[in-house]
Amino acid sequence: MFASEPPEVPREALPDGEMDPELAYQIVHDELMLDGNARLNLATFVTTWMEPQADRLMAECFDKNVIDKDEYPRTAALEQRCVRMLAELWHAPEPAEAPGCSTTGSSEACMLAGLALKRRWQQARTRAGVHVRPPAGRPNLVMGANVQICWDKFAAYWDVEPRLVPMEGDRLHLTAEQAVAHCDENTIGVVAVLGSTFDGSYEPVADICAALDTLQRETGLDIPVHVDGASGAMIAPFCDPHLDWDFRLPRVASVNTSGHKYGLVYPGVGWIVWRDTAALPDDLVFRVNYLGGDMPTFALNFSRPGAQVAAQYYTFLRLGFDGYRRVQDYCRDVATTLASRIGHLGPFRLLTHGDELPVFACALRPEIAGYSVFDVSAHLRQRGWLVPAYTFPEHRTDLAALRFVVRNGLTHDLADLLLDDLRWALTELERQPAPLRGPESASFAHGNRPRA
Ligand SMILES: *Cc1c(COP(=O)(O)O)cnc(C)c1O
Q1: What is the pLDDT of residues 154-179, one digit of tens each?
Q2: What family does this belong to (predicted)?
Q3: Which end of the chain, N or C, is more open, meaning fewer C-beta atoms within 10 Å of its C-beta?
């Protein structure tokens, strides 16, 4: 096989002729061996392992387009059932009535959530007889500077002012007081993140809602909250059932999650659910033909793979509430154990402990002068571990951290091996007189944000 490969494989232009499929497969397969090992990728929140049965199901659905609701009514039904299950899990007042859909991921889901907030604000302004004219009437969205980059995109693409609340001292995410202080009559909503991508901490959703209730009593401003639960909306229901963060809070208008993060499905699926039909303006919803009737859809994409939706339904059916709780509890146990052991190594100061999302961040103590977190990240990479180092956003760009994302498949045993390799890295680095790498080497970041 290898001896029959041509001396040069065309890379930048479409080849003139055909190639044997086995040979083409081998060439592509071999190049991809140079990618990092997904299971050792502690930078990503995205699922890197599924059961063989899920693989089989996905392969069976590779040819299905989720938009063809009329042609693939069963896939459409599975999607709707997943929405119902999530609406119930997140305590929607009427789970059967709560509108929602699958998306390509949380990014698309957040776009839809933001668009609904913007349209609701426009409609309310029109009803109040206020002519919305920029710049005086430019809508804004209040959120912490720690939001994922999809919210910067939402603001840029749909002409909304991103009102980012900077970090301050040890406050590394949005607080109720700061959120309210940034709101005015042009605020379309507040985004609360359940599980900051920077450090895995939960933002205080209930406090933010309560502070907005007070604001409404005092000023009449009625500002809805969207919960970006990309990770946390599939952790908190199982690990923190008593935490109020979802539709139990009347001010929460919508919730998104990434099915492909702690929803435990391979990349390519997200979910969004609105509290009720009032939270999703009807003029954003399009009707598609479905079994002779029509089905409402709200999406940026038209065609999308159906396999991820089938895989999500499989996972819900397969694990149920207890199964999800077992998987997420195990992840959290690994995260808290690993965090505490790393904290005890000496050079690190834990910023979070893995007890909210199974994710934690740590910085080096100020007395460590010979190496940086970027050096530690590079050393771990030599042993195959992908652990990102990055600096925090506005007002805390001085703070550089390593972040560990614990996912299904990072077992206690693997975590022990990681700890051994971290000890080895520190022994090597202790011989170094000065740091070799700074934030410019933060190859895991996306636009000054850690990858999620
Ligand atoms: C990952 C993440 C996103 C983006 O989600 P994708 O599913 O990757 O599009 C948005 N918000 C938060 C908090 C995230 O962690």
Answers
A1: 999 999 999 999 988 888 999 999 99
A2: Belongs to the group II decarboxylase family.
A3: N
Pairing of strands 225-228, 252-257: parallel
Centroid of ligand 1 to alpha carbon of 263 (angstroms): 12
pLDDT at 446 over 90: no
> What spacing in Å lies between the alpha carbon of 452 and ligand 1's midpoint?
6
Second-level CATH architecture of 59-315: 3-Layer(aba) Sandwich (3.40)
Structure tokens at 327: 């998987």
Instruction: Please list the alpha-helical segments (H only) found in 202-354.
Output: 205-219, 236-239, 307-344
Distances (CA, A) of 95 to 86, 275, 310: 8, 8, 21
| Residue closest to 86 by CA, chosen among 260, 255, 277 | 255
- pLDDT confidence band for 227 (50 / 70 / 90): very high
179 alpha carbon – ligand 1 mean position (Å): 21
CA dist 187 and 221 (Å) reads 9
pTM score, two decimals? 0.94
Q: Cα of 107 to ligand 1 centre, how many Å? A: 6
Ligand 1 pocket test target in 46, 111, 150 with most atoms within 8 Å of CB: 150
As for ligand 1, residues whose beta carbon falls within 6 Å of it are 45, 105-107, 110, 148, 150, 193, 195, 197, 228, 230-231, 258, 270, 452
Q: Where are the domains of the chain?
A: 59-315
